[in-house]
């Protein structure tokens, strides 16, 4: 019953790579649904996938449930 403890945060199924379609000075992709940088992307500019970008530092430093 405590599967959630391995996630550290609210369990969500949508841990997937996403990025902004806009030009960024320091392009990154995100995989945290609650990343503050990811949350700053306008909904209309969110795209699936990594776009061959490096992972955002905030996402990188967070625990990933798939580890
Ligand atoms: Zn991020």
Descriptive notes:
The protein has 67 residues and is low in regular secondary structure. It has one domain (13-60). The protein is built from two helices and three strands, in the order ββαβα. It has a three-stranded antiparallel sheet with strand order 2-1-3. The radius of gyration is 12 Å and the shape is globular. The model has no long low-confidence stretch (mean pLDDT 82). The structure holds zinc ion (ZN). Zinc ion binds next to α1 and α2.
Q: Structural class, from helix and strand content?
A: little secondary structure
Question: How many helices does DSSP assign?
Answer: 2
Q: What would the average pLDDT be, to the nearest integer? A: 82
The main sheet comes to: 3 strands, antiparallel
Shape: globular
Instruction: Give the termini distance in whole angstroms.
Output: 20 Å
Strand order, biggest sheet?
A: 2-1-3
Low-confidence sequence ranges: none
When the domains are counted, the total is 1
**How many individual β-strands?**
3
């Amino acid at each position: 019953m405590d599967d959630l403890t391995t996630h550290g945060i609210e369990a969500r199924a949508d841990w997937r790579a996403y990025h902004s379609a806009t030009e960024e000075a320091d392009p990154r992709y995100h995989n945290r649904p609650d990343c503050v940088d990811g949350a700053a992307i306008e909904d209309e500019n969110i795209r699936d996938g990594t776009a061959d970008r490096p992972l955002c530092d905030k996402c990188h430093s967070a625990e990933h449930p798939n580890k």
